[in-house]
Design a protein that fits this description.
CATH class of the largest domain: Alpha Beta
Radius of gyration: 21 Å
Number of strands: 13
Largest sheet: 7 strands, mixed
Order of helices and strands: HEHEHEHEEHEEHEHHEEHHHHHEEE
Shape: globular
Distance between the termini: 47 Å
CATH superfamily of the largest domain: Spore Coat Polysaccharide Biosynthesis Protein SpsA, Chain A
Length: about 400
Protein backbone atom coordinates (compact mmCIF):
# COMPACT_ATOMS: atom_id res chain seq x y z
CA UNK A 1 0.00 0.00 0.00
CA UNK A 2 1.42 3.37 -1.01
CA UNK A 3 1.47 6.30 1.37
CA UNK A 4 -0.75 8.31 -0.99
CA UNK A 5 -3.22 5.42 -1.20
CA UNK A 6 -3.37 5.16 2.58
CA UNK A 7 -3.91 8.92 2.84
CA UNK A 8 -6.80 8.74 0.36
CA UNK A 9 -8.40 5.88 2.28
CA UNK A 10 -8.02 7.83 5.52
CA UNK A 11 -9.75 10.85 3.97
CA UNK A 12 -12.52 8.57 2.70
CA UNK A 13 -13.00 7.22 6.24
CA UNK A 14 -13.17 10.76 7.62
CA UNK A 15 -15.69 11.59 4.91
CA UNK A 16 -17.86 8.67 5.99
CA UNK A 17 -17.86 10.05 9.54
CA UNK A 18 -18.93 13.41 8.11
CA UNK A 19 -21.84 11.79 6.25
CA UNK A 20 -22.98 9.97 9.38
CA UNK A 21 -22.73 13.18 11.42
CA UNK A 22 -24.81 15.01 8.80
CA UNK A 23 -27.43 12.25 8.91
CA UNK A 24 -27.52 12.57 12.71
CA UNK A 25 -27.99 16.36 12.46
CA UNK A 26 -30.81 15.95 9.94
CA UNK A 27 -32.58 13.39 12.14
CA UNK A 28 -32.11 15.66 15.18
CA UNK A 29 -33.68 18.50 13.23
CA UNK A 30 -36.69 16.30 12.53
CA UNK A 31 -37.05 15.27 16.18
CA UNK A 32 -36.81 18.83 17.42
CA UNK A 33 -39.09 20.24 14.77
CA UNK A 34 -36.56 22.40 12.93
CA UNK A 35 -33.15 24.01 13.21
CA UNK A 36 -31.47 22.53 16.31
CA UNK A 37 -30.00 25.92 17.23
CA UNK A 38 -33.14 27.97 16.58
CA UNK A 39 -35.56 28.46 19.42
CA UNK A 40 -34.05 31.14 21.62
CA UNK A 41 -36.02 34.29 22.15
CA UNK A 42 -39.56 35.12 23.09
CA UNK A 43 -42.41 34.99 20.60
CA UNK A 44 -44.89 37.85 20.56
CA UNK A 45 -48.23 37.03 18.94
CA UNK A 46 -49.45 40.05 17.01
CA UNK A 47 -53.14 40.95 17.28
CA UNK A 48 -53.08 42.18 13.69
CA UNK A 49 -50.58 40.41 11.41
CA UNK A 50 -48.21 42.88 9.75
CA UNK A 51 -48.49 43.70 6.07
CA UNK A 52 -45.99 41.97 3.78
CA UNK A 53 -44.43 42.79 0.43
CA UNK A 54 -43.04 39.81 -1.51
CA UNK A 55 -40.42 40.76 -4.08
CA UNK A 56 -39.88 38.33 -6.94
CA UNK A 57 -37.12 39.30 -9.41
CA UNK A 58 -37.78 37.46 -12.70
CA UNK A 59 -35.54 36.67 -15.65
CA UNK A 60 -36.72 34.30 -18.35
CA UNK A 61 -39.61 31.85 -18.43
CA UNK A 62 -38.08 29.06 -16.37
CA UNK A 63 -39.78 25.63 -16.48
CA UNK A 64 -42.76 25.61 -14.13
CA UNK A 65 -42.48 29.35 -13.44
CA UNK A 66 -46.24 29.94 -13.42
CA UNK A 67 -46.92 27.13 -10.94
CA UNK A 68 -44.00 28.25 -8.79
CA UNK A 69 -45.22 31.84 -8.61
CA UNK A 70 -48.79 30.69 -7.94
CA UNK A 71 -47.69 29.08 -4.66
CA UNK A 72 -46.93 32.57 -3.32
CA UNK A 73 -50.49 33.60 -4.10
CA UNK A 74 -52.04 30.68 -2.21
CA UNK A 75 -51.01 31.80 1.25
CA UNK A 76 -52.89 31.05 4.46
CA UNK A 77 -52.05 34.43 5.97
CA UNK A 78 -54.51 36.65 7.81
CA UNK A 79 -52.69 39.91 7.13
CA UNK A 80 -52.50 41.87 3.87
CA UNK A 81 -49.74 41.03 1.43
CA UNK A 82 -48.72 42.20 -2.00
CA UNK A 83 -46.58 40.48 -4.62
CA UNK A 84 -44.25 42.54 -6.80
CA UNK A 85 -42.95 40.82 -9.94
CA UNK A 86 -39.91 42.64 -11.30
CA UNK A 87 -38.43 42.46 -14.79
CA UNK A 88 -35.80 44.56 -16.55
CA UNK A 89 -36.64 43.75 -20.17
CA UNK A 90 -40.11 44.28 -21.70
CA UNK A 91 -39.31 41.46 -24.15
CA UNK A 92 -38.63 39.01 -21.33
CA UNK A 93 -40.92 35.94 -21.77
CA UNK A 94 -41.48 35.97 -18.01
CA UNK A 95 -43.68 39.03 -18.54
CA UNK A 96 -46.45 36.96 -20.14
CA UNK A 97 -46.24 34.52 -17.21
CA UNK A 98 -46.55 37.40 -14.75
CA UNK A 99 -49.53 38.82 -16.65
CA UNK A 100 -51.27 35.43 -16.66
CA UNK A 101 -50.68 35.09 -12.93
CA UNK A 102 -52.29 38.45 -12.22
CA UNK A 103 -55.27 37.48 -14.38
CA UNK A 104 -55.74 34.20 -12.48
CA UNK A 105 -55.63 35.93 -9.08
CA UNK A 106 -57.56 39.20 -9.67
CA UNK A 107 -58.33 39.59 -5.96
CA UNK A 108 -54.66 39.62 -5.01
CA UNK A 109 -52.46 42.70 -4.89
CA UNK A 110 -50.04 41.74 -7.68
CA UNK A 111 -47.91 44.45 -9.27
CA UNK A 112 -45.71 43.97 -12.32
CA UNK A 113 -42.74 46.32 -12.59
CA UNK A 114 -40.78 46.49 -15.85
CA UNK A 115 -37.81 48.78 -15.32
CA UNK A 116 -34.54 48.56 -17.31
CA UNK A 117 -32.48 50.71 -14.97
CA UNK A 118 -29.20 49.11 -13.92
CA UNK A 119 -27.85 50.11 -10.50
CA UNK A 120 -24.79 47.91 -10.24
CA UNK A 121 -23.19 44.79 -11.65
CA UNK A 122 -25.54 42.38 -9.88
CA UNK A 123 -28.54 42.33 -12.20
CA UNK A 124 -30.81 40.56 -9.74
CA UNK A 125 -30.15 43.21 -7.10
CA UNK A 126 -30.78 45.95 -9.67
CA UNK A 127 -34.13 44.31 -10.38
CA UNK A 128 -34.86 44.26 -6.63
CA UNK A 129 -34.00 47.95 -6.29
CA UNK A 130 -36.42 48.79 -9.09
CA UNK A 131 -39.33 46.67 -7.92
CA UNK A 132 -38.88 47.62 -4.24
CA UNK A 133 -39.81 51.23 -4.99
CA UNK A 134 -43.28 51.82 -3.68
CA UNK A 135 -43.35 48.66 -1.55
CA UNK A 136 -45.94 49.09 1.19
CA UNK A 137 -45.35 46.11 3.48
CA UNK A 138 -44.08 46.40 7.02
CA UNK A 139 -42.15 43.23 6.27
CA UNK A 140 -40.22 42.70 3.04
CA UNK A 141 -39.71 39.17 1.75
CA UNK A 142 -37.45 38.49 -1.21
CA UNK A 143 -37.36 35.06 -2.78
CA UNK A 144 -35.64 33.75 -5.88
CA UNK A 145 -37.88 33.06 -8.86
CA UNK A 146 -37.27 29.28 -8.72
CA UNK A 147 -38.56 28.82 -5.17
CA UNK A 148 -41.83 26.95 -4.51
CA UNK A 149 -43.57 27.32 -1.14
CA UNK A 150 -46.41 25.92 0.94
CA UNK A 151 -49.53 27.81 2.11
CA UNK A 152 -48.08 28.39 5.60
CA UNK A 153 -44.92 30.07 4.24
CA UNK A 154 -45.74 33.68 5.13
CA UNK A 155 -47.33 32.84 8.44
CA UNK A 156 -44.26 30.92 9.60
CA UNK A 157 -41.83 33.55 8.35
CA UNK A 158 -43.64 36.35 10.16
CA UNK A 159 -43.71 34.25 13.34
CA UNK A 160 -39.95 33.69 13.06
CA UNK A 161 -39.34 37.44 12.82
CA UNK A 162 -41.56 38.15 15.83
CA UNK A 163 -38.89 37.31 18.39
CA UNK A 164 -36.51 39.26 20.55
CA UNK A 165 -33.27 40.13 18.80
CA UNK A 166 -34.28 38.76 15.40
CA UNK A 167 -33.66 40.94 12.37
CA UNK A 168 -34.10 38.48 9.52
CA UNK A 169 -35.27 35.02 8.56
CA UNK A 170 -34.10 32.71 5.81
CA UNK A 171 -35.19 29.28 4.58
CA UNK A 172 -33.57 25.94 4.00
CA UNK A 173 -34.52 24.46 0.66
CA UNK A 174 -34.76 21.07 -1.01
CA UNK A 175 -34.50 20.16 -4.67
CA UNK A 176 -37.49 19.81 -7.00
CA UNK A 177 -36.47 18.32 -10.38
CA UNK A 178 -38.12 19.85 -13.43
CA UNK A 179 -38.20 16.55 -15.33
CA UNK A 180 -34.87 16.18 -17.13
CA UNK A 181 -32.09 13.83 -16.07
CA UNK A 182 -29.82 16.80 -15.43
CA UNK A 183 -32.42 18.43 -13.20
CA UNK A 184 -32.68 15.20 -11.20
CA UNK A 185 -28.92 15.24 -10.69
CA UNK A 186 -29.12 18.88 -9.62
CA UNK A 187 -31.94 18.20 -7.14
CA UNK A 188 -30.05 15.21 -5.75
CA UNK A 189 -27.05 17.45 -5.19
CA UNK A 190 -29.16 19.93 -3.23
CA UNK A 191 -30.65 17.20 -1.03
CA UNK A 192 -27.57 15.06 -0.38
CA UNK A 193 -24.78 17.66 -0.39
CA UNK A 194 -25.99 21.21 0.18
CA UNK A 195 -28.96 20.80 2.55
CA UNK A 196 -27.40 18.35 5.05
CA UNK A 197 -24.16 20.35 5.00
CA UNK A 198 -26.00 23.49 6.09
CA UNK A 199 -27.96 21.61 8.75
CA UNK A 200 -24.78 20.10 10.21
CA UNK A 201 -23.01 23.46 10.05
CA UNK A 202 -25.83 25.07 12.04
CA UNK A 203 -25.87 22.23 14.56
CA UNK A 204 -22.14 22.72 15.18
CA UNK A 205 -22.38 26.51 15.25
CA UNK A 206 -20.18 26.81 12.15
CA UNK A 207 -22.78 28.11 9.68
CA UNK A 208 -24.83 31.30 9.83
CA UNK A 209 -26.84 31.06 6.64
CA UNK A 210 -28.73 33.78 4.86
CA UNK A 211 -29.88 32.42 1.51
CA UNK A 212 -31.54 33.81 -1.59
CA UNK A 213 -34.18 31.12 -1.24
CA UNK A 214 -35.86 33.57 1.14
CA UNK A 215 -34.77 36.61 3.10
CA UNK A 216 -37.46 38.20 5.25
CA UNK A 217 -36.82 41.36 7.24
CA UNK A 218 -38.65 44.39 8.52
CA UNK A 219 -38.65 47.39 6.23
CA UNK A 220 -36.88 49.55 8.83
CA UNK A 221 -34.15 46.90 9.09
CA UNK A 222 -33.68 46.99 5.32
CA UNK A 223 -33.34 50.77 5.49
CA UNK A 224 -30.80 50.54 8.34
CA UNK A 225 -28.50 48.29 6.33
CA UNK A 226 -28.57 50.68 3.38
CA UNK A 227 -31.23 48.95 1.30
CA UNK A 228 -30.47 46.70 -1.63
CA UNK A 229 -28.13 49.34 -3.07
CA UNK A 230 -25.57 48.34 -0.44
CA UNK A 231 -25.07 44.97 -2.20
CA UNK A 232 -25.56 46.00 -5.84
CA UNK A 233 -22.06 44.87 -6.89
CA UNK A 234 -21.80 41.70 -4.76
CA UNK A 235 -22.07 38.20 -6.17
CA UNK A 236 -23.18 36.76 -2.82
CA UNK A 237 -25.82 39.43 -2.18
CA UNK A 238 -27.75 37.14 0.19
CA UNK A 239 -24.65 36.51 2.32
CA UNK A 240 -23.88 40.24 2.44
CA UNK A 241 -27.44 41.08 3.51
CA UNK A 242 -27.19 38.53 6.32
CA UNK A 243 -23.83 39.94 7.43
CA UNK A 244 -25.28 43.46 7.44
CA UNK A 245 -28.24 42.37 9.59
CA UNK A 246 -25.90 40.70 12.06
CA UNK A 247 -23.78 43.85 12.02
CA UNK A 248 -26.75 45.61 13.63
CA UNK A 249 -26.58 43.11 16.49
CA UNK A 250 -29.59 41.17 15.23
CA UNK A 251 -29.90 37.47 14.43
CA UNK A 252 -30.89 35.78 11.18
CA UNK A 253 -32.97 32.70 12.06
CA UNK A 254 -33.96 29.61 10.11
CA UNK A 255 -37.60 28.52 10.64
CA UNK A 256 -38.26 24.76 10.95
CA UNK A 257 -39.33 23.99 7.38
CA UNK A 258 -37.93 23.78 3.87
CA UNK A 259 -39.16 25.24 0.62
CA UNK A 260 -38.63 23.82 -2.85
CA UNK A 261 -35.89 24.88 -5.25
CA UNK A 262 -36.99 24.01 -8.79
CA UNK A 263 -33.95 22.55 -10.55
CA UNK A 264 -34.53 23.46 -14.18
CA UNK A 265 -31.20 22.42 -15.70
CA UNK A 266 -31.75 21.21 -19.26
CA UNK A 267 -28.17 20.24 -20.04
CA UNK A 268 -24.79 19.41 -18.56
CA UNK A 269 -23.70 22.93 -19.43
CA UNK A 270 -26.55 24.45 -17.41
CA UNK A 271 -25.75 22.28 -14.40
CA UNK A 272 -22.00 22.96 -14.49
CA UNK A 273 -22.46 26.73 -14.89
CA UNK A 274 -24.95 26.90 -12.00
CA UNK A 275 -22.99 24.79 -9.56
CA UNK A 276 -19.61 26.32 -10.40
CA UNK A 277 -21.11 29.70 -9.62
CA UNK A 278 -22.31 28.44 -6.25
CA UNK A 279 -18.97 26.81 -5.43
CA UNK A 280 -16.87 29.78 -6.49
CA UNK A 281 -19.14 32.06 -4.48
CA UNK A 282 -18.55 29.93 -1.38
CA UNK A 283 -14.83 29.88 -2.13
CA UNK A 284 -14.76 33.70 -2.15
CA UNK A 285 -16.82 33.99 1.03
CA UNK A 286 -15.02 31.31 3.07
CA UNK A 287 -11.87 30.01 1.33
CA UNK A 288 -10.72 27.92 4.30
CA UNK A 289 -14.11 26.34 4.82
CA UNK A 290 -14.40 25.63 1.12
CA UNK A 291 -11.00 23.92 1.05
CA UNK A 292 -11.93 21.93 4.16
CA UNK A 293 -15.06 20.66 2.48
CA UNK A 294 -12.92 18.16 0.56
CA UNK A 295 -13.91 15.64 3.26
CA UNK A 296 -17.49 15.86 2.00
CA UNK A 297 -16.42 13.89 -1.10
CA UNK A 298 -15.40 10.50 0.36
CA UNK A 299 -16.31 8.46 -2.70
CA UNK A 300 -13.63 10.19 -4.79
CA UNK A 301 -11.00 9.45 -2.17
CA UNK A 302 -12.22 5.88 -1.79
CA UNK A 303 -11.85 5.34 -5.54
CA UNK A 304 -8.36 6.86 -5.56
CA UNK A 305 -7.40 4.81 -2.53
CA UNK A 306 -8.69 1.61 -4.13
CA UNK A 307 -6.66 2.35 -7.26
CA UNK A 308 -3.45 3.18 -5.39
CA UNK A 309 -3.80 0.66 -2.57
CA UNK A 310 -6.09 -2.14 -3.79
CA UNK A 311 -7.30 -4.76 -1.36
CA UNK A 312 -10.27 -5.86 0.73
CA UNK A 313 -10.01 -2.85 3.04
CA UNK A 314 -10.20 -0.45 0.11
CA UNK A 315 -13.17 -2.31 -1.39
CA UNK A 316 -15.02 -2.34 1.92
CA UNK A 317 -14.43 1.39 2.38
CA UNK A 318 -15.63 2.08 -1.16
CA UNK A 319 -18.92 0.28 -0.48
CA UNK A 320 -19.20 2.02 2.89
CA UNK A 321 -18.98 5.48 1.34
CA UNK A 322 -21.87 4.67 -0.99
CA UNK A 323 -23.91 3.22 1.88
CA UNK A 324 -23.29 6.30 4.05
CA UNK A 325 -24.40 8.68 1.30
CA UNK A 326 -27.52 6.57 0.76
CA UNK A 327 -28.24 6.67 4.50
CA UNK A 328 -27.89 10.46 4.43
CA UNK A 329 -30.25 10.71 1.45
CA UNK A 330 -32.86 8.61 3.25
CA UNK A 331 -32.49 10.71 6.40
CA UNK A 332 -33.10 13.92 4.44
CA UNK A 333 -36.13 12.48 2.64
CA UNK A 334 -37.71 11.33 5.89
CA UNK A 335 -36.89 14.45 7.89
CA UNK A 336 -38.36 16.87 5.36
CA UNK A 337 -41.05 14.68 3.79
CA UNK A 338 -39.45 14.56 0.34
CA UNK A 339 -40.08 12.20 -2.54
CA UNK A 340 -37.61 9.36 -3.05
CA UNK A 341 -34.70 10.03 -5.37
CA UNK A 342 -33.41 7.56 -7.98
CA UNK A 343 -30.80 6.07 -5.64
CA UNK A 344 -28.72 4.59 -8.45
CA UNK A 345 -27.74 8.16 -9.34
CA UNK A 346 -26.02 8.70 -5.98
CA UNK A 347 -22.53 7.52 -7.09
CA UNK A 348 -22.88 9.54 -10.31
CA UNK A 349 -23.85 12.62 -8.31
CA UNK A 350 -20.94 12.12 -5.92
CA UNK A 351 -18.47 11.87 -8.79
CA UNK A 352 -19.91 14.99 -10.42
CA UNK A 353 -19.74 16.93 -7.15
CA UNK A 354 -16.12 15.97 -6.62
CA UNK A 355 -15.18 17.05 -10.15
CA UNK A 356 -16.90 20.42 -9.77
CA UNK A 357 -15.24 20.91 -6.38
CA UNK A 358 -11.83 20.52 -8.01
CA UNK A 359 -12.82 22.81 -10.90
CA UNK A 360 -13.92 25.52 -8.47
CA UNK A 361 -10.26 26.19 -7.58
CA UNK A 362 -9.30 26.99 -11.16
CA UNK A 363 -10.37 30.47 -12.15
CA UNK A 364 -12.80 33.03 -10.76
CA UNK A 365 -15.19 33.21 -13.71
CA UNK A 366 -18.91 32.63 -13.21
CA UNK A 367 -21.82 32.46 -15.65
CA UNK A 368 -25.02 34.09 -14.45
CA UNK A 369 -28.21 35.16 -16.23
CA UNK A 370 -26.60 35.02 -19.67
CA UNK A 371 -23.52 37.05 -18.70
CA UNK A 372 -20.01 36.16 -17.64
CA UNK A 373 -18.24 37.78 -14.71
CA UNK A 374 -15.00 37.52 -12.84
CA UNK A 375 -15.32 37.50 -9.07
CA UNK A 376 -12.92 39.82 -7.29
CA UNK A 377 -11.29 38.72 -4.04
CA UNK A 378 -13.65 41.08 -2.23
CA UNK A 379 -16.62 39.15 -3.65
CA UNK A 380 -17.57 41.95 -6.07
CA UNK A 381 -18.61 41.15 -9.64
CA UNK A 382 -16.32 42.31 -12.45
CA UNK A 383 -17.78 42.10 -15.96
CA UNK A 384 -15.96 40.06 -18.60
CA UNK A 385 -15.32 41.61 -21.98
CA UNK A 386 -17.14 38.84 -23.84
CA UNK A 387 -20.85 38.07 -23.18
CA UNK A 388 -21.83 34.53 -22.41
CA UNK A 389 -23.69 33.00 -25.40
CA UNK A 390 -25.97 31.07 -23.02
Amino acid sequence: MTALGIACLALAAIGCLYLLAAAWAVRATRRRGGDPRDGAGRHHAAAVPPSVTILKPLHGAEPGLFDTLATFCRQDYDGPFEIVLGLQDPADPALSVATSLRALFPDHAIRIVVDPRQHGRNRKVSNLINCAEGATGEIVVLADSDMRVGPDYLRRLVAALDRDGVGGATCLYHGVPAGTGWSRLAALGVDTHFLPGVVLGMALGLAKPCMGSTIALRRETLERIGGFAAVQDALADDYEIGAAIRGLGLAVVVPPFTIGHVSAERSARDLVAQELRWLRTIRQIDPRGHAGSLVTHPLAFALLGAALAPGPVALLLLLTTIACRLALCLAVERAFGLRAHPYWLIPVRDGLSAGLFVASFFGRDVSWRGHRYEVARSGALLPKARPDPT
